[in-house]
Amino acid sequence: MERSRIAVAGASGLIGSALVRSLLADGHEVVRLVRRSARTADEVCWDPGGQYVDTAGLAGCEAVVNLAGAGVGDHRWTDAYKKEVRDSRVLGTAALAEAVASLETPPRVLVNGSAIGFYGDTGDRAVDENAPPGDGFLSSLCVEWEEAAAAAQEAGVRTVFARTGLVVAREGGAWGRLFPLFRAGLGGRMGDGRQYWSFISLHDEVAALRHLIDAEALSGPVNLTAPQPLTNREITAAMGRVLHRPTFLAVPAPVLRTVLGEMAGDVLGSARVLPKRLLESGFSFAFPGIEDTIRSALG
Predict the structure, then answer these.
(1) C-alpha pair distances (Å), 222 with each of 19, 61, 125, 225
(2) Distance separating alpha carbons of residues 192 and 123, to the nearest angstrom
(3) C-alpha–C-alpha distance, residues 178 and 136, integer Å
(4) Residue closest to 71 by CA, chosen among 124, 15, 20
(5) N or C: more exposed end of the chain, with fewer CB within 10 A?
């Protein structure tokens, strides 16, 4: 990619901050959307809930990447928090899509966050981007989230939905919570351990997002997951091998449901998701296997 001006919403999050570092390291100009008055030339003010974006700050951007949203696993899923999770994604995406569509010279591409939660519980069945949405809160959220980008699509902006899996990173996300437990010898399978987890290294997640910016032929949903999803039992064993810790403990499903409430369904559910379109577009994974992915996260 030639040096470009790229706007990033959600730039302070796990994935967003890693993406910004990568883009800046390669000499790109990055403008970050912030939920306060802009203080520097590389900031753009926006208010996702209030449906406001300072469109002047997006002028000249070749690409806009939207990774903003309240953390799905940050709190127990009360009705109030589910509304916050939904609004932060759906309203924010709609505001950004409409802002992009209103520009006299729109960006070439809008890369909008989404998640493999779109597919729901797939059991042992492997799915790719052709699969329909599943059932439950995350599936309906992802459907609304993607539909909220309609204004950009209707304006002719190439729009890509990055359906991301479980990002393996030490700094945050689900794996950021798992590493300390496994290091302490307290890690183990969850439930019966037969549910599939579709993972991706943070390195490959960032590389894939940059690939989506560049790949002119790609639009619509693209799964960002490693090529071979594994069961929770297999991933637990791999964590034990890499960290040289026992993994005999297990968290029974009833305990997870008691502690996590409705969110336990996402932990115990199975998502065997394949990155069909990403691979077909020529993307190459640096860390396709789980052990290399874990080691990359540990630095």
Answers:
(1) 17, 22, 18, 9
(2) 13
(3) 25
(4) 15
(5) C
Single-letter amino acid, residue 157: V
Paired with 47 in beta bridges are 52
User: How far is Cα 82 from Cα 117, in angstroms, rounded to an integer?
Assistant: 14
Cβ within 8 Å of residue 28, ≥6 positions away = 1, 3, 4, 5, 6
First vs last Cα of the chain: how many Å apart? 27
- Residue 55, H or E segment: none
Q: Which fold has domain 5-298?
A: Rossmann fold (3.40.50)
pLDDT band at 78 (very low <50, low <70, confident <90, very high): confident
pLDDT of residue 161: 98
Triad 50, 54, 56: Cα angle to 5°: 160
Query: Cβ distance 105 to 155 under 8 Å?
Result: no
Q: In the chain, how long is the greatest CA-to-CA distance?
A: 60
pLDDT higher than threshold 80 for residue 74: no
Question: What tokens appear for 189 in the block?
Answer: 């399978």
Q: pLDDT tens digits for 16-50?
A: 999 999 999 999 999 999 999 999 999 999 999 89
Q: What is the pTM of this model?
A: 0.95
Q: CA–CA separation, 61 vs 9, rounded Å?
A: 13
Report the alpha-carbon distance of residue 93 to residue 66 in Å, rounded.
7
Question: Kind of pairing, strands 52-53 and 43-47?
Answer: antiparallel
CA distance 258 to 188: 18
**Domain map of the chain by residue range?**
5-298
Q: What is the pLDDT of residues 89-103, one digit of tens each?
A: 999 999 999 999 999
Q: What is d(CA 5, CA 104) in angstroms, rounded to the nearest whole number? A: 16
Contacts 24+ apart (CB under 8 A), 261-268: 261/76, 261/77, 262/77, 262/137, 263/72, 263/73, 263/76, 263/77, 265/121, 265/136, 266/72, 266/117, 266/136, 266/138, 267/190, 267/191, 268/190, 268/191, 268/195
Please check the confidence at residue 260 and state whether its pLDDT lies above 70. no
